[in-house]
């Protein structure tokens, strides 16, 4: 092989190695992003469940208050 061929092979090898490192980093970042999204979805589900409970309890309390106020002798 001539020197220019060796240089080209070395450059191509560096490019390949760089692309492999880039792909590995991309996969790592993508996985972290997916993990964060799954955590956010779980948190939203918990918050939604809590909100429904609070609204339900509030509705029962308001209904009880209305019944109590209408049952007062005037």
Task: Write structural notes for this entry.
The protein has 74 residues and is mainly α. Helices cover 93% and strands 0% of the residues. The protein contains one helix and no strands. The longest helix is centred in the middle third of the chain and has 69 residues, at 3-71. The chain is rod-shaped, with a radius of gyration of 32 Å. The model has no long low-confidence stretch (mean pLDDT 96).
List the helices and strands and how they pair.
Blueprint (H helix, E strand, L loop, with lengths): L2 H69 L3
Number of E-type strands:
0
Mean pLDDT level: 96
Number of contiguous helices: 1
Q: Give the H and E element order.
A: H
Q: Which spans of ≥5 residues are poorly predicted at pLDDT below 50?
A: none
User: Which radius of gyration do the C-alpha atoms yield?
Assistant: 32 Å
Q: Biggest sheet, open or closed, and with what strands and sense?
A: none
Q: What is the distance, rounded to the nearest whole angstrom, between the alpha carbons of the first and last residues?
A: 108 Å
Class by alpha and beta content: mainly alpha
Helix amount: over 70%
Gross morphology is rod-shaped
Work out the strand percent: under 5%
Features:
74 residues, mainly alpha, 93% helix, 0% strand
What would a concise description of this structure say?
With 74 residues, this protein is mainly alpha-helical.
């Amino acid at each position: 092989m001539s020197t220019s061929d060796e240089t080209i092979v070395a450059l191509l090898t560096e490019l390949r190695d760089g692309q492999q490192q880039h792909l590995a980093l991309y996969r790592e970042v993508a996985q972290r992003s997916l993990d964060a999204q799954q955590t956010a979805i779980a948190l939203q589900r918990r918050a939604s469940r809590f909100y429904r409970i609070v609204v339900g309890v509030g509705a029962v309390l308001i209904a009880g208050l209305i019944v109590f106020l209408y049952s007062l002798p005037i």
